[in-house]
Amino acid sequence: WPKAWAAFRMAKEVWAEDAAEDAKAKHQSEMVFPIGASNDGFAQYFSGKSYLAPLSTAQVGIYNVTFEPGCRNNWHIHHAAKGGGQILVCVAGRGYYQEWGKAPLELHPGDVVNIPPEVKHWHGAAPDCWFSHLAVEVPGEGTSNEWCEPVPEETYKELR
Questions:
Q1: pLDDT tens digits, 9-61
Q2: Most buried pick, 13, 60, 71, 148, via CB within 10 A?
Q3: How far apart are CA 126 and CA 101, in angstroms?
Q4: Is the pLDDT confidence value at 72 over 90?
């Protein structure tokens, strides 16, 4: 019996991995942009797993950011002396955007969020759904990002 239970547990893990890959493939089929590679360079600023696909880095930075269900980035601020900010163009799935001190907004494909510089905010997937958006870096002078605290689990769990 111990060996049978061990084999059963291993089979459950394999099926779970297959289901996750199927969900990722289904999400990819819902949009024209690639999901991209694991977003390891910014992983410390995310709760959960995200992916990054640079679409343009020449004139304006445009990146397809994909969030697995439940993944979101930390609160953060796009600073700029002049110009700057960020634009999110939602392309697949369901997610959220929230500015500090305001109620979260549910996001769907086709939604566009204009984020002025100096606004503390976060964005990411709904707890039960994959989500992708194009992140457009608005050109400016003296631009930088300040990463802040994670979105508290209690706050995030209130979203559905």
A1: 655 554 445 556 788 989 999 999 999 999 999 999 999 999 999 999 999 99
A2: 71
A3: 19
A4: yes
Pairing of strands 72-73, 46-47: antiparallel
**Residue 84 φ/ψ region, left for φ over 0, alpha for ψ in the -120 to 50 degree band, beta for the rest:** left
- Contact of 86 with 133, CB cutoff 8 Å: no
Q: What is the DSSP string of the chain?
A: -HHHHHHHHHHHHHHHHHHHHHHHHHHHHT-SS---EE-GGGGGGEES-EEEEEEE-SSS-EEEEEE-TT-EEPPEEEE-SEE--EEEEEEEE-EEEEETTS--EEE-TT-EEEE-TT--EEEEE-TTS-EEEEEEE--EES-EEEE-PPPPHHHHHT--
Whether 49 and 38 have beta carbons less than 8 Å apart is answered as: yes
Looking at CATH, the fold of the domain delimited by 31-157 is given as: Jelly Rolls (2.60.120)
Q: In sequence order, what are the beta bridge partners of 119? A: none
How many angstroms separate the Cα of 84 from the Cα of each of 62, 77, 116, 140? 14, 11, 7, 4
